[in-house]
UniProtKB/TrEMBL annotation:
Keywords of the record: ATP-binding, Cytoplasm, Kinase, Nucleotide-binding, Transferase
Gene: cmk
Enzyme class: transferase
Start and end residues of each Cytidylate kinase domain: 6-222
Molecular function in Gene Ontology: ATP binding; dCMP kinase activity
Name of protein: Cytidylate kinase
Length: 225
């Protein structure tokens, strides 16, 4: 039987987070930002200067990570994170931490830990899960799966705009490069690579705004398709 979970996957800069938050709010579901978890683990491993190839060191450090997600107060707010009690909400949202997250997300032990945690949070149902592998690996029995995509230049442009709104100075070409590199990592890794589930609804967001895509997603759900 299908799980009362909606998954929204895709590369960076397709509008996944904003759309997931909106869909969750309309349906009264909980938004589960799985990327925030990978970012937090990346930060913790960086803080502790762990040798990523040392399985034993990785196991022991991963056992010490406690992640708590803090839902944003406003609809536009990113999910915050308490990492072992420390608020790292701002720290994890830089382009550099996104790259670190992408790097550590290819490590089997990291994925094992976070996938388990995500299932614990999602298996009760009433969740909109957002990430790269939520429809393919974390919740393969999700009732509705969506895969959002958009042209790379447009995705980079959106990232730039996001960073600008946060008051950060950004180099557009650099962002495009980092976006492409991160997606390549995410698509080509051996475990749980970024790809659309066979039973996912694919939506190209290149020339659609947030409200249009949100509407499309809600239409599919309301029609019970
Ligand atoms: O979505 P966000 O940009 O916060 O994700 C950061 C990184 O975390 C991604 O580039 C990806 O490498 C990793 N990630 C993942 N699986 C997920 C969510 C995120 O590997 N379900």
């Amino acid at each position: 039987e299908a799980l009362a979970v909606i998954t929204i996957d895709g590369p960076s800069g397709v509008g996944k987070s904003t759309i997931s938050r909106k869909v969750a709010r309309v349906l009264g579901f909980t938004y589960l930002d799985t990327g925030a978890m990978y970012r937090a683990v990346g930060l913790f491993l960086q803080w502790n200067r762990v040798d990523l190839s040392d399985d034993q060191a990785m196991r022991s450090i991963l056992a010490k990570i406690h992640i708590q997600l803090l839902p944003g107060k406003n609809e536009d707010d990113d999910t915050g994170v308490l990492l072992n009690g420390e608020d790292v909400s701002g720290t994890i949202r830089t382009p550099e931490m996104a790259m670190v997250a992408s790097k550590v997300s290819a490590i089997p032990l990291v994925r094992e830990k976070l996938t388990m945690l995500q299932r614990q949070l999602g298996n009760i149902g009433g969740v909109v899960a957002e990430g790269r592998d939520t429809g393919t690996v974390v919740f393969p029995r999700a009732r509705y799966k969506f895969f959002l995509d958009a042209r790379p230049e447009e995705r980079a442009r959106r990232r730039v705009r996001q960073l600008c709104m946060r008051g950060e100075a950004v180099d557009e070409r650099k962002i495009l490069e980092m976006t492409l590199e991160r997606d390549k990592n995410d698509r080509e890794r051996a475990i749980a690579p970024l790809r659309q589930a066979e039973d996912a609804w694919v939506i190209d967001t290149t020339s659609r705004d947030i409200d249009e895509v949100t509407h499309l997603v809600l239409e599919v759900i309301r029609a019970g398709r």
